[in-house]
């Protein structure tokens, strides 16, 4: 299973990358950015619950003493990530929001070292740097929207990155006690509870009912881009280091760029292609086995 764990991360990134496609479709209903985020998380939690109740009811059982951990991963990770990312998109360009989001591997690498004693090897640092630079080239960087409140915007964007990265840390702890389905479900459930507080559910339902034909795809698309990727990511975390998993997740930027080119005719410039190559190089580098010199391995 360890050998295929990176493939589950890639699968998660391919699904996460489709978020833009789904979000654009949901936006045609007239929902705001925050309302779209709420719809995606809440509908995913409901569908996820029904599936578990019908086919895996035992996965719904958790110990009361662990509620704090699940609240932490749901509110501190998913909820914070969604809220901060939505706010960053409104304050700055989408490219800048994406770059700030993908500061997450840096947070994960540091936290994994502190809490799990994961080694920060030369190989990992090099891959981390390559992946981040690759993301810069893939999406480009625009300063649009940063003329005012630049410091606050950057801090909010980094909160999105921290929230995204926190899932790898808290998830690694919970996955030692629970199945990946359980961890993913309760994380989404607590995130859903948090988003409901920030929106007016009645207003969201009223807006959606004005476009009933779009509702099925809105709900299915939300589940596919929220619940399924977190299930894949959680499963992979059981078998690999949090730091490596976070770096591999950078492939989402590449996938999103390719979706844009194929589905919306967005042109890829030379710098974008170079960025894709750098991210792929980083992912390959992480999968190479370190050479051994005598009895001493690479540090």
TrEMBL record:
**What Gene3D superfamilies does the entry give?**
1.10.3730.20
Q: Which UniProt keywords apply?
A: Membrane, Transmembrane, Transmembrane helix
InterPro entries under this entry?
Answer: EamA_dom (IPR000620), EmrE-like (IPR037185)
Domain EamA: from-to ranges: 7-139, 153-286
State if Transmembrane is listed as a keyword: yes
On whether Membrane is a keyword of this UniProt record, the answer is yes
The UniProt transmembrane annotation reads 36-55, 67-85, 97-116, 125-144, 150-171, 183-202, 214-233
What family is this? Belongs to the EamA transporter family.
Any idea what this protein is called? Answer: DMT family transporter
Organism of provenance: Ohessyouella blattaphilus
């Amino acid at each position: 299973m360890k050998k295929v764990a990176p493939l589950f991360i890639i699968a998660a990134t391919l699904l996460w990358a489709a978020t833009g496609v789904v979000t654009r479709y949901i936006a045609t209903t007239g929902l705001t950015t925050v309302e779209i985020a709420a719809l995606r998380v809440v509908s995913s939690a409901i569908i996820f619950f029904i599936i578990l109740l019908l086919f895996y009811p035992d996965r719904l059982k958790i110990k009361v003493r662990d509620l704090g951990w699940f609240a932490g991963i749901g509110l501190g990770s998913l909820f914070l990530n969604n809220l901060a990312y939505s706010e960053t998109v409104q304050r700055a360009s989408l490219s800048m929001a994406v770059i700030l989001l993908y500061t997450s591997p840096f947070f994960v690498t540091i936290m994994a070292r502190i809490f799990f004693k994961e080694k920060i090897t030369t190989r990992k640092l090099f891959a981390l740097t390559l992946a981040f630079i690759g993301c810069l080239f893939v999406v480009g960087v625009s300063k649009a929207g940063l003329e005012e409140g630049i410091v606050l915007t950057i801090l909010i964007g980094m909160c999105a990155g921290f929230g995204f990265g926190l899932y790898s840390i808290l998830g690694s702890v919970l996955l030692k006690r629970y199945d990946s389905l359980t961890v993913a479900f309760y994380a989404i459930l607590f995130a859903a509870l948090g988003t409901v507080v920030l929106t007016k559910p009645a207003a969201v339902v009223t807006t959606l009912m004005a476009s009933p034909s779009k509702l099925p795809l809105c709900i299915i698309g939300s589940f596919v881009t929220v619940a399924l990727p977190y299930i894949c990511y959680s499963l992979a975390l059981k078998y690999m280091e949090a730091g490596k998993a976070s770096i591999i997740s950078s492939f989402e930027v590449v996938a999103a760029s390719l979706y844009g080119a194929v589905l919306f005719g967005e042109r890829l410039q030379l710098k974008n292609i170079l960025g894709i190559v750098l991210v792929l190089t980083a992912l390959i580098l992480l999968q190479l086995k370190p050479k051994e010199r005598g009895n001493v391995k690479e540090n």
